[in-house]
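Much of our argument rests on the idea that a fold can be written as discrete symbols. In the encoding step, the backbone of a single protein was reduced to a row of integers, each denoting a local shape. This step matters because it turns folding into a mapping between discrete strings. For completeness, the protein is quoted in full, as a sequence line and a line of structure tokens:
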Amino acid sequence: MRPLWHGLRILLTVIRFRLDTILLELTKDHWLRWLLLSRYLPKPRKSSALRLREAIEHLGPVFIKFGQILSTRRDLLPVDYADQLAKLQDQVPPFPTDEAISRIEKSLNRSLNDLFSDFKRDPIASASLAQVHAARLQDGNEVVVKVIRPDVADRIRKDLALIFQAVTFLHAVSRDARRLRLIEVVQDYEETIFNELDLTKEAHNTTRLRYNFADSELLYVPRVFRDFTTTDVLVLERIHGVPISATSELSARGTDLKKLAVRGVETFFTQVFEHNFFHADMHPGNIFIDAADPSNPSYIAVDCAIMGQLTAEDQTYLARNIVAFFNQDFKEIAQLHAESGWIGAESDVQAFEQVIRELCEPLFLQPLSQISFGHFLLNLFTTARQFNMEVQPQLVLLQKTLLNIEGLGRQLDPDLDLWTTAKPFMERWMQNRYGVEATLKAFTDNAPKLLGQLPRLPHLLLTAGDRLNSVERQLRVQTHAMEKLQSSLNESRITNWRKLWVILFGLGGIAQFCAVLLNWLPVDNHDTFLVGGIVSCLVAVSLSVKR
């Protein structure tokens, strides 16, 4: 009964918050929209985006987490939806401390008294997946203990199964849903959230980031106590810093905020281009400031569950795009997008260049300190939809992180000039990677291999044309076969979906009608509303089966 009740709870939430209007929007060109009885009901007063956020908050932690991740996909979502989902707050009540202690002892196979000389029962933080307690090891080290919530994995699997079913249906019936690539978003979410459930992965990320900045004044990362870390428990050095959002306290201490803002930008570009391993969840709750020396402040980063990396190709093209943006070379930006495959092969590069020019030129009329490169990327991803731009998840993580860093930097110093800091860094990186010295070094390193291939060079040149023709013929044959297969699969899928969803739409339509009727009646008891919804669903099932 539990899965059935879980599904009914979600169905009733959909009805309560009138999310059927979103379904109407997504199926505007599909015949199934005519089966939605709600299309004949009055329109809700609140916007669809606002009602979606409220429904996600009502459904609880797993859906909130999904909404938070979905909000970062501004390259896919309309602006109003992205703005509403970005407001989701993951404020979850803590689970009982006795359960936390039991999980710690079971996971580490030792009693709490053997592990810690002091353990604070009241958690210092609580989120959807875990909560954190302060403690002290037997050797005197102050630590924090992160504990995964009990049974959270089972709930995530059940919720994900329902989310997958919903987006699979939408993918089948809605062109907009396919454009939004909702199935890929859910798959990314599944991978991300289950990675967060394995605290050994967070421990590895933390250790690697700490190693990368071991000799740097830019960033400090807490030490991981490996002997006290398992899949369900993570023990870290406790840090004592000032939250980055406490700008008034930082100012009261005489902290050099301008230097701190510049160092934030340097830290970001160092992670992305020097280390190719960047903290992808740098919101204010995960960043603290070491202001012990106000004239030389530095950052402290925690919660390394979500990290990003770029392929060598994306890293190179991104760097060249940034330099081209700084130099206002719009033609170069358009050509780089075409070369990298970020826009469709059939796209008109000149038209794309014109779009970029129209997007960028108004920016350069502003003072440099007011130009947001993060928002430029955001607008670029949004505008490039019409050119079938395919944005990889790692690029979206990067854009999200840049927006966070840039926003925090401007909060510390409203006059932060990203150009002064970033442009020399990027030009230096490009010179080191692709300058004359770098090219000569690469040639020298690969000289033995090149010399070994020289005897084969004449034959390869003579046969190159025949080889290319052969590849083109094979590609045409494979493309034709794939098109026939895809057409066959689409026809089969549409037929099956029609049979199934005619019944389910009948169920949903009757459930909507009954629930709306209950809302018009003087019913004060919320349980009565739920019972009414369940009864209406059972009636619909009965009618559908008879049909």
Q: What stands out?
A: The chain has 22 helices and eleven strands. The first strand starts at residue 116 and ends at 119. Residues 518-547 have pLDDT under 50 and may be disordered. The two ends are 25 Å apart (CA to CA).
